[in-house]
Amino acid sequence: MEKSDLAGNAVTFLHDEDYLNAFQTPHITADTWLNVTNRQGYALNGDWGFAIDPFDTGFRQRWFEYGADTVPRAHDWNPYQAETCTLPGVWNLFAPELFHFEGGVWFARQIDDIRTAPDNRLILHIGAANYCARVFVGGRFIGRHLGGSTPFSVDISDHVQGRTMVLIHVENHRQPDRLPSHHFDWLHYGGLHRDIALYDLPAEHIRDVFARLDGDDVVVDVDTTAGLSFAQVDIPALNLSAEVPLTGGQGQLRVAAKPRLWSPDDPFLHDVTVTAGTDTLHDRIGFRHIETSGNRVLINGQPTFLKGVCVHEDDAETGRVTSPEDIRRRFRHARELGANFLRLAHYPHHTDVARIADEEGLMLWAEIPAYWSIRFDDPGTRADAQNQLAELVRRDRNRASVILWGLANETADTPPRNAFLADLAALARRLDPSRPLAAACLFNQDTLTMQDRLAQVIDVVGINQYFGWYDDNINDLRRILDQYDLNKPLVISETGCDVLAGDQGPADAANSEAFGVRYYQNQIATVEGHDAVAGFVPWLLYDFRSARRQNGAQRGWNRKGLIADDKTTYKQVFHTLRDFYARLNETEG
Ligand code: GCB
């Protein structure tokens, strides 16, 4: 019989079904998130020990107590002798037998106390963990974070002494109360797929800065720890150097200014430096106006047609792990297409995406995974969604390239859903009054009208439509556009069909290159010049993995990419769309 240190009863830990209760709270949320832009952190990327744990043995047997004063005996895993992996990483690609693993995995490594002053704070920052992460430091449970694509920070100062063991348990069970829920069209990668770093900060420090244009004013919100009484804001290109009084760590600077505006043609970024106490945060921020008027999107007052393409964060070699090179390749392909806009589907992408788009002058739609069937009446799901949205907005609201927050994708119009999404809209507007909101809404399939009540809440109405693929009659699309009577921009937020690169079949054979070209030609002929349409954002740039796609042409991949999964092989549809955007670009002059 195994021995347990849980209780005198040697078998308790095998029978206790409440073993997780002690690891549900505290929640790590947007409230503890730290803006780490340009901060010099100590990278914790690289080798970590790991173990899969399909039975939650690590909780029952308290594996996390490794690193505490007493080392547990007779345990079924020992992080000091663990197999290793490289983080950021997704376990699906650690070994072939883990490809479809869904469950819990422990990650472990030791860290050093890097504090440069005794009362400094040590903040652990994790770029993303899909889906539920529990953090243990020095044998103690620190907190739990939900949501697979947004960053979180946690103060671990009180638990680090000399060299200290950190364990992070990540589990990605597909559950109906999560976002996304248990059913979605991409591969359910699990892991710690973005940067992990440790920050050594003065006890009193800057938590966040939010700079933007509001009418003729530049506005800078400063959020610091409570002990600071003022901050200094410097924007040299505006000759601006001002002191901001802080109350309870909060302050706002508002000054009339005429900054050189960021635009896709001139993506000018201002150096913005905020200093408070001995702490400094530096960012490069573009100032621009984004609004809607009637059925047009206006950038700096100019009607701008969104020539777009959707993109997933997926890679044959690295899964959800991305890199600046991968992001720049995405943007090179988008530019080659003649696009000015990308929809980042269907969850927050890496923080570098918007940063690089800022520099390159591309516009983005950033969204949270309120996708398909969501438990809209579950208060836990609602809290999770609000937190994911808050973490996304706080992370990216300084990025001029992000012009739309996407709230939801193809969710059915019911009262609980409308209440849930109205709350999310209110939250987005409170955290960021400067951006319009969008969503992929559902149209009425019988009347071919836009009847989704969500459209009343948002500013830019998206429709995903696949006439000529899932639905037959392309004329129905024209009918939807002709009947569209909302005084808001309408964007085709998805359209596309599966094409197997190199398939030379005839135009009436699904999956052939010729079929794809005809599909796109029909779509474009319907949309081109139609007054109702403010943007066209086909589905999508690259083929991506999806476990629910298993026919002969798919074999685990959604093949609607304009470019194949190698991110190199162009399909003919790429050129069809490029020709359309070239015509638009020519007319725009
Ligand atoms: C959609 C979904 C997207 C799917 C796509 C498809 O409407 O929003 O996530 O991948 O269709 O390929 O069917």
From TrEMBL:
One function term, GO molecular function aspect: carbohydrate binding
Pfam hit, one: Glyco_hydro_2_N
Signal peptide interval: none
Keyword Hydrolase listed: yes
Enzyme Commission numbers on file: 3.2.1.31
Residue span, Glycosyl hydrolases family 2 sugar binding domain: 43-202
UniProt entry keywords in alphabetical sequence: Glycosidase, Hydrolase
Example GO biological process: carbohydrate metabolic process
Cited InterPro entries: Beta-gal/glucu_dom_sf, Galactose-bd-like_sf, GH, Glyco_hydro_2, Glyco_hydro_2_AS, Glyco_hydro_2_cat, Glyco_hydro_2_N, Ig-like_fold
Transmembrane segments: none
Domain Glycoside hydrolase family 2 catalytic: 293-569
Leading EC class: hydrolase
Occurrences of domain Glycoside hydrolase family 2 immunoglobulin-like beta-sandwich (ranges): 257-288
Family: Belongs to the glycosyl hydrolase 2 family.
Stated name of the protein: Beta-glucuronidase
